[in-house]
Amino acid sequence: MDQPQVMIVADDAEFARGIVARWQSERTVPAFTVMSSELWQGGRTGHWRVALVGATAADPPVAVLKALEAHGRPVIYVAPDGASAQAAREVSPRLLVVRRNEGWLDAVVVLGGEALRHSDAAERAHKAEQAAAQLHRQATLGRYMLEMRHNLNNALTSVLGNSELLLLEPGTLSAGAREQVDTIRNMALRMHEIIQRFSSLDAEMRFADNHPAAAAGKSVTVAARAAD
Q: Is-above-0.90 flag for pTM?
């Protein structure tokens, strides 16, 4: 998983340096991207999981806060006073607001760390959902193939039977036609073998589901024989 990234939007370089320096004392330190509010307005925010906004020319920077929140990721605003904090909350109730008073750096780092952990957990859950959906699609396809075995076997039986009949009458076919029919027969045989393997695998999986202890012992015996 990529290193979590924190984007700091500030017009005061000391604001950003203070946050980065304070975060360096933590066990887990994210990667940082620092941008001024003027530079950020270009809209090229890059990859980030948590945004920290503060010490900007406009307090609160309404346009910046609204645009950042539209990404659906945690945004922390460090307000210089109570009026700016209240105005920021009116911009969005979901905004995380920290007053810039004594201990604000500690509060920002703690809040930012929790936001990163929450973002990481959400990303893991999303990936797990995607993996589960992929497994479900594969399982559905596998079940469909198993259900269609009978129909496929019937079709292959017909192909094999007719190709064998044609090959039993050498005078009715040219050499090229006989070669093509022989190829059809051989490919049909290969397809039949594949279907039989599916059937065998299905039987083994059903046996393992119904007799887990016996299936485990069988696996050990097979592994021992392979080792010998």
A: no
> What are 38-90's pLDDT values in tens digits?
877 655 556 788 999 998 888 888 888 888 888 888 999 999 999 999 998 88
Q: Residue 60 belongs to a domain with what CATH number?
A: 3.40.50.2300
**Which CB contacts under 8 angstroms, 24+ apart, belong to 28-34?**
28/113, 30/3, 30/4, 30/5, 30/6, 30/116, 31/3, 31/4, 31/5, 31/6, 32/5, 32/6, 32/7, 32/8, 33/5, 33/6, 33/7, 33/8, 34/7, 34/8, 34/10
**Domain check: are 121 and 156 in the same one?**
no
Last residue of some domain: 96, 127, 158? 127
Same domain, 153 and 123: no
With the C-alpha atoms ordered 61, 65, 68, 74, is the resulting torsion angle positive or negative? positive
Q: What is the pLDDT of residue 53?
A: 94
